[in-house]
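We were asked to recover a plausible sequence for a given structure. The inputs and outputs are reproduced exactly as logged, with field labels preserved.

PROBLEM: sequence recovery
POSITIONS: 198
GIVEN STRUCTURE:
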């Protein structure tokens, strides 16, 4: 099936993919842009998973000030090369991550950084609340695990909903999409959030 160049151009503008990748995806999906976009994303996530093992030693420290300087964020985001670190797309992502941190006040980048004592304390609180509410003991642990997932979604940066585009999913999803698009591993290494009076 011959794919019209205008379809390839449209898919490229939506996905940011290469000409050949877009053409191939359109050929495989019979010219259906939505299906081709889905196929490109699936392939991109596979590529991102492979690249996640590569070392990221370059990058940038992005700063963001909010509310007239009452909230400030510094975030270190690493990539593999200084070339990518200087690109507009990478810099924009870093700035958006800093804004995310300012707005949602995460405690850590990922779940592994949350101290076990904090997790145990949360579980104890949930168990006490559930027992007080009269929930059966057999159900309590299952409910605690569900509430713990909600806790992670609030306090772990990578588990939070992406503030800039609800359809993009979580911060981790946006990060994987960036990795797939630029072809390098990208890691949100660490951050600090400052707020006047806190």
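RECOVERED SEQUENCE:
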């Amino acid at each position: 099936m011959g794919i019209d160049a205008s379809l390839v151009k449209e898919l490229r503008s939506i996905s940011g993919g290469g000409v050949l990748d877009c053409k191939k995806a359109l050929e495989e999906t019979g010219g259906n842009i939505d299906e081709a976009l889905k196929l490109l994303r699936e392939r991109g996530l596979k590529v991102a998973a492979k690249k996640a093992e590569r070392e990221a030693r370059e990058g940038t420290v992005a700063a963001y000030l909010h509310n007239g300087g009452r909230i400030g964020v510094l975030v270190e985001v690493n990539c593999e090369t200084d070339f990518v670190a200087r690109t507009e797309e990478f810099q924009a992502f870093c700035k958006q991550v800093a804004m995310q941190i300012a707005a949602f006040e995460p405690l850590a980048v990922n779940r592994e950084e949350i101290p076990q004592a904090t997790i145990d304390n949360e579980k104890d609180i949930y168990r006490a609340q559930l027992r007080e509410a009269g929930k059966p003991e057999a159900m309590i642990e299952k409910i605690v695990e569900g509430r713990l997932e909600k806790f992670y979604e609030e306090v772990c940066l990578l588990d939070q909903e992406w503030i800039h585009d609800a359809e993009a999913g979580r911060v981790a999803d946006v990060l994987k999409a960036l990795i797939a698009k630029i072809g390098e591993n990208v890691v949100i290494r660490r951050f600090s959030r400052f707020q006047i009076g806190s």
